[in-house]
Amino acid sequence: MLHERLSSVYDNVLRRNPGEIEFHQAVREVLESIGPVLGKDPEYAEHKIIERICEPERQIIFRVPWEDDQGEVHINRGFRVEFNSALGPYKGGLRFHPSVYLGIVKFLGFEQIFKNGLTGLPIGGGKGGSDFDPKGRSDREIMRFCQSFMTELYRHLGEYTDVPAGDIGVGGREIGYLFGQYKRITNRYESGVITGKGLTYGGAQVRTEATGYGCAFFVEEMLKARGTSFDGRRVVVSGAGNVAIYSIEKVQQLGGIVVACSDSSGYVVDEKGIDLDLLKQIKGVERRRLSAYAERRGTDATFVAGRSVWEVPCEVAMPSATENEITGKDAEAMVRGGCMAVGEGANMPTTPEGIRVFQEAGVSFGPGKAANAGGVATSALEMQQNASRDRWTFEFSERKLQEIMKDIHRRCLQTADEYGMPGDYVAGANIDGFKRVADAMLAMGLI
Ligand code: NDP
User: Fold this and answer.
1) Catalytic residue among 106, 127, 183, 250, which?
2) Which residues does the record give as NAD(+) binding sites (predicted)?
3) CATH class (in words) of the domain with range 210-361
4) Which atom of ligand 1 is nearest to the CA of 321?
């Protein structure tokens, strides 16, 4: 239920942003949480802070022309939504996927504002990407696309202005091509302008692993709060990309057994536990379908084409592929199957019905804003190292990441308690993230 004042804010968002359903969903989730804040702090409503937060500071849409290996010309659309810079330069990844349109970029950018606030680090919120489909493209085609994309985007970036990173379809290879083109156009070695860089040219230790590792640390804290741990627990992780792979790695180190993962073609079940080296080889190096994992693994693993991995029973679920992958029905089946904790590695992977089912069943539910914030937090650490021309060790960086995740977990619970919703990580994350941004905006006058 929405507070009366927030209901009119939401109606306005629907009216001003027609058809952008993912954006509507992300806004509604935040508005549903912050009703109690308005009672305690009337200043936010008086100064129309919420209305202002729902309107991006700037939206950039541009043409990206490029040529494939056969010489055929393609035209894609590029986006960068600079949503909120009250806490620092716009910060958030770039997504290359055919489903990308303004509504997806705005939902991701909106989430990013609160997530970045929650980290306690000086970063604002933004997001970008393109409807370009990298699947099946050669390295040279990817490079030409990235160069064309950056040829427009560079003018909007800067280490004090807007600092992108990766997301779906944008990993180390793409970041390298994007940074190379930025450097070439601007004639500046401005390392802090993009994060997720390779370790040979300004990247930071643990950035590649950070979202997945951070999510595992967050879930470990949720399990601790329930008086238990990962040890011997049956875990399912969706996806087989950056976030999924490093979630699996850390969960295995913490004693959990990851029995299934997925990609856009289906899922694989491996009751003895996913063979991570093989998974990295198939998905990360060879860039093949997940069925190749089962073929090479032999009789231990089964590949199931075209179905949802959430039909595999588990005690801990870590959705790490894409938005709205866990429906209300999936959630009901998961609860029946013994699921006790969910940590969202992806952004908004659970539908509102799914969240309701988990919360009503007493499942510990860690929303993406909190559980996957380790990625952007470590990006901020990369910016810090770039600014001071410093390099930290893997161990030091991982310790920092773990501290940040513990702190986010603690603050989610503390804030939820303060507002009378004990154990509600969604409310805790939304309220804490919101207040940090809102207080900065109040202090800066009418911005
Ligand atoms: P990757 O591109 O590395 O991996 C994405 C994985 O999810 C792939 O296995 C892909 O399958 C699968 N996938 C993508 N879209 C779909 C779909 N529509 N249906 C089914 N499967 C799909 O991306 P990341 O791991 O970086 O990102 C995953 C999620 O985590 C996203 O929600 C992203 O926003 C979020 N996130 C990422 C961060 C980061 O640091 N990278 C930080 C915070 C959140 P296939 O291999 O077949 O394409």
Assistant:
1) 127
2) 211, 242
3) alpha beta
4) 7
